[in-house]
């Protein structure tokens, strides 16, 4: 169960310095979408991140999903292993140490990716996990609804032709063979310093940018998430605003908008304070991706903007699928078949 956590309120964070834009989604009617679109445009072009409040996803649902993941992690290893992510697919369970962002440093976290709301993606253990499928499905649907709203707001922000973005994201959570959208549950275990492999050099999540259109991230109050804001190379703690969901732009969106929107590098560090280090951390991410076949062409979505002659002739257009494959081979080497988000 999630116990009450002590908020890292004394640390210098982007939240404590009011240095991260906060976007209020309350009363998301037709007129509100214009305001949200403008705020998102400013946030993603200046900072690459924002915190969404009044987003409509109840805290209880997020906490229930974390509880369900805890129950999953309590299952015997041989049961968990039945749900392990297989090479060439993006869904399933990954145990600590299996993911290596820089090719060598193991990551101290458990993750579970869901790309479709079906029995292949979602564990159904009637005895031990009776509520898992229901709790995760309802939360995933909420994240899809929130993403749909954000996509509409981005259409306003970018002045795209109507439904331009929505139509290109029509298969969210329909399976990684058609769309790479993923709900990822994450648990970072407590760090016990005298256990081998858990102290020096270990990372909770290595520095990276997310690949897709954008990511929605709910995190508990344990802290550790850091970002490099545009134009700087300093790592800054994000901090915790209770009830908020962080949005960060992904690399595809950055390519799509000719870098008008940033994909900010981020990571999760082992907290420097010993008392916090010895507690686990939960987060949940929804990676919103376009359909795999979508051509990521800036000309389609920046229709109202003038482009230089150089931009229109030199630009080679790839599909979302091709760009992700290219990213894997740049990250893991050309032989890698690893299918891995973020
Ligand atoms: O756990 C977090 O707060 C961030 C996780 C993340 O960035 C990722 O999985 O891509
Ligand atoms: Fe990420």
Automatic annotation (TrEMBL):
Record key words, sorted: Iron, Metal-binding, Oxidoreductase
**Domain Fe2OG dioxygenase per the UniProt entry, residue ranges:** 179-290
**Single annotated GO MF:** oxidoreductase activity
- Does Metal-binding show up as a keyword for this record? yes
Residues annotated as signal peptide: none
**What InterPro entries does the entry give?**
DIOX_N (IPR026992), IPNS-like_FE2OG_OXY (IPR044861), IPNS-like_sf (IPR027443), Iron_ascorbate_oxido_reductase (IPR050231), Oxoglu/Fe-dep_dioxygenase_dom (IPR005123)
Family designation: Belongs to the iron/ascorbate-dependent oxidoreductase family.
Q: What's the protein called, per UniProt?
A: Blast:UPF0676 protein C1494.01
Q: What is the lineage of its organism?
A: Eukaryota, Metazoa, Ecdysozoa, Arthropoda, Hexapoda
């Amino acid at each position: 169960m999630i116990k009450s956590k002590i908020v890292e309120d004394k640390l210098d964070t982007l939240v404590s310095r009011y240095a991260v834009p906060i976007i209020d989604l309350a009363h998301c009617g037709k007129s509100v979408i214009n305001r949200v679109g403008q705020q998102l445009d400013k946030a993603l072009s200046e900072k690459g991140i924002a915190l969404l409040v009044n987003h409509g996803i109840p805290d209880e649902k997020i906490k229930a999903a974390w509880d369900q993941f805890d129950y999953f992690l309590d299952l015997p290893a041989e049961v968990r292993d039945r749900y392990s992510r297989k090479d060439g697919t993006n869904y399933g369970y990954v145990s600590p140490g299996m993911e290596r962002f820089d090719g060598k440093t193991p990551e101290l976290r458990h993750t579970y990716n869901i790309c479709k709301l079906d029995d292949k993606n979602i564990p159904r253990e009637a005895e031990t996990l009776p509520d898992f499928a229901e709790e995760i499905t309802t939360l995933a649907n909420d994240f899809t609804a929130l993403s749909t709203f954000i996509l509409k707001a981005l259409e306003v922000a970018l002045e795209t032709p109507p439904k331009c973005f929505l139509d290109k994201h029509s298969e969210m959570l329909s399976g990684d063979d058609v769309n790479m959208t993923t709900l990822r549950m994450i648990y970072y275990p407590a760090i016990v310093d005298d256990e081998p492999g858990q102290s020096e050099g270990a990372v909770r999540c290595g520095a990276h940018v997310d690949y897709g259109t954008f990511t929605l991230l709910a995190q508990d109050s344990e802290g550790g998430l850091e970002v490099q804001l545009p134009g700087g190379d300093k790592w800054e703690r994000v901090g915790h605003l209770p009830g908020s969901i962080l949005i960060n732009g992904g690399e595809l969106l950055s390519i799509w908008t000719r870098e008008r929107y940033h994909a900010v590098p981020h990571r999760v560090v082992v907290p420097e304070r010993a008392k916090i280090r010895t507690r686990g951390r939960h987060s949940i991410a929804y990676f919103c991706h376009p359909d795999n076949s979508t051509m990521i062409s800036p000309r389609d979505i920046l229709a109202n903007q003038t482009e230089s002659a150089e931009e229109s002739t030199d630009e080679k257009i790839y599909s979302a699928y091709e760009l992700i494959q290219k990213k894997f081979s740049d990250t893991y080497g050309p032989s890698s078949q690893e299918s891995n988000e973020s």
